[in-house]
Predict the 3D structure of the following.
Amino acid sequence: MPIFFIAFPFGIVIALQALAIVRQYGVTAQVSGVLSHLMVRELSPITTGMMIAAQSGGSIAAEIASFKVKKQINSLESMGIDPYNYIIFPRFLAIIIVTPIMEIFSVTFSIIGGYLTAVYLGGISSGAFIHNLNEFTTTNDIFFGLIKSLLFGIIIATVGSFHGINSKYSSKDVGLAANNTVVEATIFFIFINYIISSFAY
């Protein structure tokens, strides 16, 4: 699972950095609170969105663009089949459903990585880590993290479908559609993330 290879090391790195900071103030047990705030609120949604944009968003754009190059969309229209319902809607729905689920996996794997680092390398007691994790992780953090990932999924599906269906009838535009999807989706992520974080926190 690709998300594991991103989220798990992220949790380890964040825990190591947090340990270095909290030790200066003698509150090493608070490392799980730092990990929770960073991963649940910000890093897990944004990294999950960027990973799905790079993999699935670019793939959707390239696939739809290739359908257009091969005149398959025109063929569907000539048979009376709506290409939007047949080609775009299933991919749109799949991205929207999968992105929040992957965000949950991302948070879980990052917490596991942080736990192993803090407990077995940092010497923090397992009980203190879990207690502070529960103390600092609020329902709002989880809710807004899922809202972000859901909006990121909508952005990925919309931008990918837009560039795919509006690509030109040449093979080089297939790659261009995929590239534009990733770049523009990432820009939208940053903008949406700023708005939600400003509103929520």
Remarks:
- Residues 31-69 form the longest helix (39 residues).
- The chain has a mean pLDDT of 87.
